[in-house]
Design brief:
It is a single chain. By secondary structure, this protein is an alpha+beta fold. The chain has one domain. The protein has 3 helices and 7 strands. The protein has a 7-stranded antiparallel sheet. A hairpin with a 3-residue loop joins strand 2 and strand 3. It is globular and about 50 Å long.
Length: 132
């Protein structure tokens, strides 16, 4: 796990470098994917806007209680296996959103916590580097 301050530093570096980030997530039964750039970072909030600046945006707060942040490299993320070896060290941040209990969970009196909703942010290789 990493701290919100460490996550801020990673996202701020991605912003400063102008890196393109692939964002994907699973939230309340639906999924999304967005190719974006980090446009704003603070110790409280991260804002990403689609790489073409017209297709959407996502933001999330770093100061939310019960947020779990993890650093990963593509080699650690099963769905990213098969990337070129030079791309295996690109930055990735996994954000597990605060635990959300559903009515069904309470009725079932679960002894284990339900799965968390997850957001993935994966740095993409620069286009000129990937064409070499």
């Amino acid at each position: 796990m990493i701290t919100p301050d460490e996550a801020f530093l990673i996202f701020d570096k991605l912003r400063a470098d102008g890196s393109v980030v692939f964002c994907m997530g699973r939230l309340s039964g639906w999924t999304f994917a967005l190719r974006a750039k980090v446009v704003s970072t603070s110790g409280q909030e991260i804002i990403l806007v689609s790489a073409d600046r017209h297709s959407g945006s996502i933001s999330f707060r770093l100061d939310v209680e019960d947020l779990i942040l993890r650093y990963a490299e593509p080699r650690d993320v099963p769905m990213l296996q098969g990337l070129h070896e030079r791309d295996m060290n690109l930055a990735s941040v996994v954000v597990s959103l605060p635990l959300r209990l559903r009515t069904a969970d309470l009725r079932a009196r679960l002894l284990e916590a339900p799965p968390r909703e997850i957001l993935f942010f994966v740095e993409l290789p620069r286009e000129e580097e990937s064409q070499q």
